[in-house]
């Protein structure tokens, strides 16, 4: 994975497509590609251009994964592969494909980041499948899921008028986990250096599960070859050791509930906003206390959103979680929490968000000293929705 080889010699071109998977292919080159795959092999009606391109490129692997032979034996012998064997590159022909450009354009003539995130996950998943494949159709394949996404930083805006590449490969493997690094590159000029064209880098962690048992399954080994591949492997190994001090976001959750009483109403007959903030704060404080394992110290209310009024008699549920932590400053680590209030109607089996509260805590210096400066754990999202919530709140914080 030298800088000059960051783009595969045969990148996968992405084309615009709005066609149904059941219609004739608009780009058929021979009779074998005149029709789409049957309904049973398409999990949903909507596919982005990248998903379409990846399916076309790796159709045999995908078809096997979508209809796995659960009674087939598992892979008996692990293979050893190199990063180059899993490398894949996607090419967005923005400069020549007007319809593709329109599919990715935002109101400011830049690439829609949310849509790009979908594509990054799709490519990382395909790379992980490629690495884990044993090329033996008689064994049952592995089930691969996104476990987490490491820090993503957009280094420069992405124009929708200039061709764009996403390139990636497996950089590290554990027993049942795989790390994939993806680079989004877009040159502002034809003479731009490779390092200058990197607009975004992201690391995805996938975990392997056995299709039949659902338990963790071992994956093929990895042998880095180039100096850059070795450096990336060592960096991933270091992060993995550090991540032993991490926790999944869902494992930080707490919840309580109450029936709103007449004594809690304001002069307009609704539930007093201060009462809602009071209850949300107490839950956030308890969550921070349990998470840190030491007495928290309140720093600030980041934001409160009053989305709908709460009435006397409403069944109110408060749900809290630690969104993310910042521990660069060990003397004052930051714990960022979210509390969401839901008005729930059990008789209708419905629930509606009424308020969102965001708080920041640290830990008392004396408590930290008693715990020998124990490191505050890093919170890792387990789903795309959790990752989106974290990014949105971090972006909002950066504007303040």
UniProtKB/TrEMBL annotation:
EC number: 3.1.2.2
A GO MF label: fatty acyl-CoA hydrolase activity
Annotated CDD domains: BFIT_BACH (cd03442)
Keyword Manganese (UniProt): no
GO BP, one annotated term: acyl-CoA metabolic process
SUPFAM superfamilies recorded: Thioesterase/thiol ester dehydrase-isomerase
Region annotation (Disordered) ranges: 1-37
Top enzyme category: hydrolase
Skewed-composition ranges (Polar residues): 1-22
Keywords assigned by UniProt, alphabetized: Hydrolase, Repeat, Transit peptide
Domain HotDog ACOT-type: 90-212, 250-367
Family, per entry: Belongs to the acyl coenzyme A hydrolase family.
PANTHER family reported for this sequence: ACYL-COA THIOESTERASE (PTHR12655), ACYL-COENZYME A THIOESTERASE 9, MITOCHONDRIAL (PTHR12655:SF0)
Protein name per its UniProtKB record: Acyl-CoA thioesterase
Annotated source species: Handroanthus impetiginosus
């Amino acid at each position: 994975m030298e800088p000059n080889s960051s783009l595969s010699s045969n990148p996968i071109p992405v084309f615009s497509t709005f066609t149904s998977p059941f219609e004739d292919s608009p780009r058929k080159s021979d009779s074998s590609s005149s029709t789409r795959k049957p309904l049973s092999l398409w999990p949903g009606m909507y596919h982005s251009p990248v998903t379409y391109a990846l399916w076309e490129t790796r159709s045999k692997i995908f078809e096997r994964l979508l209809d796995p032979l659960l009674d087939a034996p598992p892979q008996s012998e692990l293979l050893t592969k190199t990063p180059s064997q899993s490398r894949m590159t996607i090419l967005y022909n923005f400069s020549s494909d007007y319809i593709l450009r329109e599919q990715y354009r935002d109101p400011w003539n830049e690439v829609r980041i949310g849509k790009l995130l979908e594509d990054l996950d799709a490519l990382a998943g395909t790379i992980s499948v490629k690495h884990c494949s044993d090329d033996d159709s008689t064994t049952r394949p592995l089930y691969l899921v996104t476990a987490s996404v490491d820090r993503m930083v957009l280094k420069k805006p992405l124009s929708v008028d200039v061709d764009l590449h996403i390139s990636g490969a497996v950089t590290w493997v554990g027993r049942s986990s795989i790390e994939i690094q993806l680079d989004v590159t877009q040159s502002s000029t034809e003479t731009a250096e490779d390092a200058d064209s990197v607009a975004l880098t992201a690391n995805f962690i996938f975990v392997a599960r056995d299709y039949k048992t659902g338990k963790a399954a071992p994956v093929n080994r990895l042998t880095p070859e180039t100096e850059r591949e070795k450096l990336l492997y060592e960096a991933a190994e270091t992060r993995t050791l550090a991540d032993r001090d991490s926790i999944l976001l869902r494992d930080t959750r707490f919840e309580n509930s109450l029936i709103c009483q007449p004594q809690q109403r304001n002069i307009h007959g609704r539930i007093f906003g201060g009462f809602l903030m009071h209850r949300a704060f107490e839950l956030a404080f308890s969550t921070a206390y349990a998470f840190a394992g030491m007495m928290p110290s309140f720093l600030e209310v980041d934001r409160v959103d009053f989305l709908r009024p709460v009435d006397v008699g409403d069944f109110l549920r408060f749900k809290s979680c630690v969104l993310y932590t910042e521990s660069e400053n060990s003397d004052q680590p930051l714990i960022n929490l979210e509390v969401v209030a839901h008005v729930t109607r059990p008789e209708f089996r419905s629930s509606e968000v009424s308020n969102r509260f965001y708080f920041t805590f640290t830990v008392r210096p004396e408590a930290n000293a008693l715990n020998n400066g124990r490191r505050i754990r890093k919170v890792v999202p387990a789903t795309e929705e959790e990752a989106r919530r974290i990014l949105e709140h971090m972006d909002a914080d950066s504007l303040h």
